[in-house]
């Protein structure tokens, strides 16, 4: 019973954790790519990584916080341009292959021993080295606060301040996406998703619209990356291919082309994984599955959930079957 | 422009309409198929099921707010290594610990996340070295409330394994050294070796793409499966390496057959779009990677425990296993080529690749050809995995995943969907990857291959042998 409570507690904590919010922001970015425009971006973790590096390196170079954020967003924009120019005129798979490759290149460069002085190499950079300017902004003061079952520092490394900022960002970005997707611009994107040729025949430059969507979603990915490293540390390997796939699972779980889908998906993604792991840890004897294996088991389940989801309920929990992007070319 | 319209129309009739008409009766059968195939995979792998971590130390006990990173370091003789310094970096932690009298080390953590655990090789006793295939520092996922660890494999003085120039080791020294003729030849030989193995693995990827239009992201795991099964048969069960390899290739081919029978064919019949299927392969790939970790662990395992014997050929040295692997690859690639060019079924395969509807109209059983392609592809990938495991002196759950991007680069360069393109592309990519080592440190070698991929798409997106109408 006690273990079950621990699992429940962990699930509740994961619901409000800044990591979940970071994944949600990245998933909202991917939603613009895939859900609204039909672009197969398989390198969203690369956008997160470039955002995180742009931010952290600027901070450690002594630049003010706002400049660091702007540099991170510019870096993500350039990354999107480099990826988009060769591929957006080709069929969908090519963007998928190029984005996944480019994300891997970034990760490899980030962890390269040549750049240890800048990126910390494969060890990465610890949170203390760049968190200062962000926590200085906090108006919550020192000490701890308790809200319901949770007790965290007000401002500390992984406290209420970063949670407040992360979830406020989720809310602001969701509102922003809601508004632009109702605008004429958003309708063109959906049109591209449904039938590229039809939109082209209306005189719209499909290539530029796709590029704008790629940049916008990528910039949101970069914001997600910054929020991901703020409460933790910056390590290239933590934003590898696995992260991209988690974002995809979260998005498809919640429902692509919906406003709340990515957020709900991210929350359920972590909760589900912890639940599977907790239950397997409690009810399966250690001789069959040790603690390490329960975690791996939970990831196996995540993969299977992704497969079943795509086949049986491609619209996810909140999605609309009419708004599917799967026939995107 | 005419062509675009035609393909569009075909999409409409073959993809969207059946989606609605054939929806109802399938789900249960499909779900059963999934469970079956998972059980099959797990069953096959459970030969090698062994608990990965048994060590628990008193120094650290995990509870709700702390987790433990821990492990045991043993010398090549099997005795505990005492007083070895370990560094643990990650989250907010930057600590170093020493192994105790039992060779155990432990570090408590209060933040879950990835930690880098490094072994200070200078504190190892004289004559003992870390296995070069061992990642150092290794990444460990630390979790609250549980223990996580990593294994460092220590080799004795007699076993300097890497005269062979494997993927990880000479990388470190390479950047600093000057480019000599000998090193160029050595790297070129490694390049040919990598290219051949890559070709073996990617022909299947390209054939599957050609016949079904599916980019199979789980193809890398087929390669890993081959290597790990060979480890199970040859190392754990102690079979003769040749016998083990034959069994492995047969089992791998069977996984291809049943994959198509149980997953891909039913999904095709349901009229599910290729984009959707691609995401299904990604889900499969995640699952398989963790299935491998579940049974084998995150460590690198060796198929053949004996130290490789190296053979000098002129200015270069290659291990015996490398030479065998290259010979076998060449023979198998030629056989596959002859099969595709000369045999009736091979010609039918190319016809399906060319134009499935036309092939079906001329009386070719497309489903049968696709089944054959899956079987062949999985078998070839398995064979590549075995030889990769032998040549690189170890295989782990992520070997195939790392290779997958090189395979994609190879088939894109050669032209997606063409078997011969895959071969040429693989040779070029293999060569580039190994020659990059001459001038750049090892971290960048894959990066150059992927950079080539991006450049190819920019300049000639259909690849060397591809056709224009396939790409847009």
Write up what this structure looks like:
The complex is a heterodimer of chains A (329) and B (472). By secondary structure, chain A is an all-alpha fold. Chain A has helices at 2-16, 18-36, 44-60, 65-87, 92-110, 116-119, 128-136, 160-182, 184-194, 196-201, 206-229, 241-254, 261-283, 291-312; strands at residues 144-147, 150-153. Chain A has a two-stranded antiparallel sheet. The N and C termini of chain A lie far apart (50 Å). Chain A has a single domain (2-112, 150-323), classed as ABC transporter involved in vitamin B12 uptake, BtuC (Orthogonal Bundle). Chain B folds into two domains: 67-159, Immunoglobulins (Immunoglobulin-like, Sandwich), CATH 2.60.40; 181-470, Orthogonal Bundle (ABC transporter involved in vitamin B12 uptake, BtuC), CATH 1.10.3470. Chain B is globular and about 75 Å long. A four-stranded antiparallel β-sheet of chain B has the order 3-2-5-7, with no helix packed on it. A three-stranded mixed β-sheet of chain B has the order 4-1-8, with no helix packed on it. Mean pLDDT of chain B is 76; it is low at 1-27, 36-59 and 157-176. With 472 residues, chain B is an alpha+beta fold. In chain B, helix 5 packs parallel to helix 7 (274-296) and helix 8 runs antiparallel to helix 11. Chain B contains 14 helices and eleven strands. The N and C termini of chain B lie close together (10 Å). Chains A and B meet through helix 1, helix 4, helix 5, helix 12 and helix 14 of A and helix 1, helix 2, strand 5, strand 8 and helix 7 of B.
Rg over CA atoms of chain A: 20 Å
User: What shape does the CA trace of chain A take?
Assistant: globular
Largest sheet of chain A: 2 strands, antiparallel
Instruction: Give the helix level of chain A as a range of percent.
Output: 55-70%
In what range is the share of β-strand residues of chain A? under 5%
State the name of the first-level CATH class of chain A.
Mainly Alpha
Count of individual helical segments of chain A = 14
Please tell me the CATH architecture of chain A by its name.
Answer: Orthogonal Bundle
Strand order of the largest sheet of chain A: 1-2
Terminal-residue CA separation of chain A = 50 Å
What oligomeric state do the depicted chains represent? Answer: heterodimer
Helical proportion of chain B, percent range = 55-70%
Instruction: Report the order of strands and helices of chain B.
Output: HHEEEEEEEEEHHHHHEEHHHHHHH
Arithmetic mean pLDDT of chain A: 88
């Amino acid at each position: 019973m006690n273990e079950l409570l621990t699992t429940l507690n962990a699930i509740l904590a994961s619901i409000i954790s800044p990591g979940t919010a970071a994944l949600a922001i990245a998933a909202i970015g991917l939603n613009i790519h895939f859900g609204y425009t039909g672009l197969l971006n398989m390198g969203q973790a690369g956008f997160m990584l470039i955002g995180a590096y742009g931010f952290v390196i600027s901070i450690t170079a002594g630049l003010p916080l706002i400049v660091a954020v702007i540099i991170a967003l510019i870096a993500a924009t350039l990354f999107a341009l480099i990826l988009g120019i060769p591929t957006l005129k080709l069929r969908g798979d090519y963007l998928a292959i190029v984005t996944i490759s480019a994300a891997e290149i970034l990760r490899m460069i980030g962890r390269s021993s040549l750049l240890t002085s800048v990126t910390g190499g494969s060890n990465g950079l610890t949170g203390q080295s760049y968190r200062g300017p962000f926590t200085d902004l906090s108006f919550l003061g020192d000490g701890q606060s308790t809200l319901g079952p949770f007790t965290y520092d007000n401002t500390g490394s992984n406290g209420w301040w970063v949670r407040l900022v992360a979830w406020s960002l989720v809310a602001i970005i969701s509102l922003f996406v809601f508004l632009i997707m109702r605008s004429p611009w958003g309708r063109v994107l959906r049109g591209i998703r449904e039938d590229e040729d039809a939109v082209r025949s209306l005189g719209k430059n499909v290539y530029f619209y796709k590029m704008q969507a790629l940049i916008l979603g990528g910039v949101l990915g970069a914001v997600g990356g910054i929020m991901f490293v703020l409460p933790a540390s910056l390590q290239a390997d933590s934003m590898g291919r696995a992260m991209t796939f988690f974002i995809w699972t979260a998005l498809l779980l919640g429902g692509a082309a919906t406003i709340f889908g990515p957020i709900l998906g991210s929350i359920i993604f972590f909760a589900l994984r912890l639940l599977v792991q907790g239950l397997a840890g409690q009810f399966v004897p250690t001789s069959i599955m040790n603690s390490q294996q329960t975690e791996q088991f939970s990831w196996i389940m995540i993969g299977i959930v992704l497969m079943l989801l795509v086949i049986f309920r491609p619209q996810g929990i909140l999605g609309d079957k009419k708004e599917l992007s799967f026939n995107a070319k | 422009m005419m062509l675009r319209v035609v393909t569009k129309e075909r999409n409409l009739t073959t993809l969207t309409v059946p989606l609605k008409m054939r929806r109802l009766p399938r789900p249960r059968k499909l779900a059963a198929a999934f469970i079956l195939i998972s059980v099959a995979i797990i069953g096959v792998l459970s030969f090698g099921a062994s608990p990965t971590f048994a060590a628990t130390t008193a120094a650290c006990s995990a509870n709700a707010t702390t987790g433990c990173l821990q492990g045991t370091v043993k010398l090549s003789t099997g005795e505990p290594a005492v007083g070895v310094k370990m560094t643990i970096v990650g989250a907010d932690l930057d600590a170093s610990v020493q192994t105790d009298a039992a060779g155990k080390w432990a570090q408590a953590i209060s933040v879950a996340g990835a930690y880098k655990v490094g072994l200070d090789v200078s504190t190892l006793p004289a004559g003992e070295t870390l296995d070069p295939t061992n990642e150092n520092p290794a990444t460990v996922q630390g979790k609250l409330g549980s223990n996580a660890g990593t294994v460092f494999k220590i080799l004795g003085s007699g076993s300097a394994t890497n005269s062979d120039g494997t993927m990880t080791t000479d990388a470190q020294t390479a950047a600093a050294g000057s480019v000599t003729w000998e090193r160029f030849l050595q790297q070129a030989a490694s390049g040919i070796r990598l290219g051949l193995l890559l070709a073996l693995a990617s022909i299947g990827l390209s054939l599957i793409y050609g016949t079904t239009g599916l980019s199979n992201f789980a193809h890398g795991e087929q390669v890993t499966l081959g290597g790990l099964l060979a480890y199970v048969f040859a190392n754990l069960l102690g079979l003769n390496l040749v016998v083990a390899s034959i069994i492995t290739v047969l089992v791998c081919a069977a996984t291809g057959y049943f994959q198509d029978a149980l997953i891909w064919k039913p999904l095709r019949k349901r009229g599910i779009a290729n984009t959707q299927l691609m995401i299904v392969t990604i889900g499969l790939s995640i699952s398989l990677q963790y299935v491998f970790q579940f049974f084998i662990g995150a460590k690198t395992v060796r198929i053949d425990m004996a130290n490789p014997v190296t053979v000098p050929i002129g200015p270069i040295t290659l291990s015996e296993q490398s030479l065998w692997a290259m010979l076998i690859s060449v023979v198998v690639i030629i056989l596959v080529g002859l099969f595709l060019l000369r045999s009736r079924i091979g010609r039918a395969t190319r016809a399906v690749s060319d134009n499935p509807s036309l092939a079906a109209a001329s009386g070719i059983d497309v489903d049968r050809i696709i089944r054959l392609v899956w079987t062949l592809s999985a078998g070839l990938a398995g064979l590549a995995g075995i030889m990769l495991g032998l040549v690189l002196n170890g295989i782990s759950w992520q070997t195939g995943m790392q290779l997958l991007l090189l395979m994609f680069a190879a088939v894109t360069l050669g032209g997606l969907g063409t078997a011969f393109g895959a071969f040429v592309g693989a040779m070029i990519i293999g060569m580039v990857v190994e020659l990059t080592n001459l001038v750049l440190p090892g971290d960048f070698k894959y990066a150059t291959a992927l950079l080539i991929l991006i450049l190819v798409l920019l300049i000639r997106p259909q690849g060397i042998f591809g056709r224009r109408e396939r790409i847009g």
